[in-house]
UniProtKB/TrEMBL annotation:
Reactions the enzyme catalyzes: an N-acyl-D-glucosamine 6-phosphate = an N-acyl-D-mannosamine 6-phosphate
Recorded name of the encoding gene: nanE
NCBIfam families xrefs: PRK01130.1
Protein name: Putative N-acetylmannosamine-6-phosphate 2-epimerase
Family, per entry: Belongs to the NanE family.
Protein's UniProt keywords contain Signal: no
EC numbers: 5.1.3.9
Listed CDD domains: NanE
Amino acid sequence: MDKEKLFAQIKGGLIVSCQALEHEPLYTKEGGVMPLMAKAAAMSGAVGIRANTVRDITQIKEVVDLPVIGIIKKDYPGTPMYITVTMKEVDELVACGVDILAVQGTGALRPDGSTSAEFIRAIKAKYPDQLVMADCDNFENAMACAEAGADFVGTTMRGYTPETQGIDDIDFDFVHKLATECPAKVIAEGHIHYPEQAVKALEAGAFALVVGGAITRPAEITARFTGAINAMNK
């Protein structure tokens, strides 16, 4: 998809994250579940899909005509990095035709010792036309990734790194600061549980937003309800 056309399509819209890890109820070895989630999201007005693994991305692209943010989650020894960590995953994502390639953009080093900024520069050198999103946790890392060539920075990892531990809600001030000072387009992602939060993130300046667990993880949604009910009954 043409870059400007993609920007116009997702601007101000909802991207739905359709993922199921191996330990989750909706995961199956043969796949087939996440494409159904993506179809439901598309029917309800989503402007894009975020997906994990080549298999799920390929299956999703067969059933919906929406831009896909693609990632590969994989743990590596010696690093907390797990979202599209090496060039091997990058090559696989590019080969399956992701519209936006997302990588972890936090402060930890990758297995080869490279920083997030160095990794993004390497991706852009190898695939200059590939749109790249950096999943970041703080302002400094987001700026470094943007200056390295990331087209998008996401608030994805805020609250999930040692430096941001304890942040359990979407940080609207962080979204606004990025939107006003960062050269990359800002995608609000993480800790968005309610439509009102989504609207507020866009009002804070987000270019678009990603919502996953609140839409596509029934176990998480159920736990939110049962947790509230159990707290009331104590």
